[in-house]
Design a protein that fits this description.
With about 130 residues, the chain is mostly helical. Helices cover about 75% and strands about 0% of the residues. The chain is elongated and about 55 Å long.
């Protein structure tokens, strides 16, 4: 499981860097400052949680169940949160109106928060 968690974190980190560069060099020419800022928010949160997964994968203090729970929450959270932000920020470039999926963004954010909560509560209940 640790290998899967760390590998996923590495892939999310790599794609965050690629998307960040794409935003800074290509999208900068076609998006407004506000849209670009929104896109960058998605990149930041993806990178934060890529690093979080790498960290979780290296922790020996967490049970396998807790690691799986955090992994699933974070992966789905990044897909919902950052993924919807990418689509919403680039909405002006497509003929499809991605505003109808805007409700997914806060759901993704909640899943990310819950991933951190699982980590917190597993350490609080752990006996020293």
């Amino acid at each position: 499981m640790d290998k899967k968690i760390i590998s996923t974190g590495a892939i999310l980190g790599m794609t965050a860097i690629i998307l960040g560069a794409f935003g800074a060099h290509t999208l900068k020419k076609v998006l407004s400052i506000e849209e670009l800022s929104t896109f960058e928010t998605g990149v930041k949160y993806q990178m934060y949680h890529a690093l979080f997964l790498v960290f979780i994968g290296t922790l020996n203090e967490l049970s396998l169940k807790a690691k799986k729970t955090i992994y699933n929450l974070v992966l789905l959270g990044v897909l919902f949160f950052s993924g919807s932000i990418y689509l919403l920020a680039t909405n002006s470039l497509t003929s499809f109106d991605f505003k109808i999926i805007g409700f997914i963004t806060p759901i993704g954010g909640l899943l990310l928060i819950l991933g951190w909560c699982v980590l917190f509560f597993n350490f609080i209940k752990k006996k020293s």
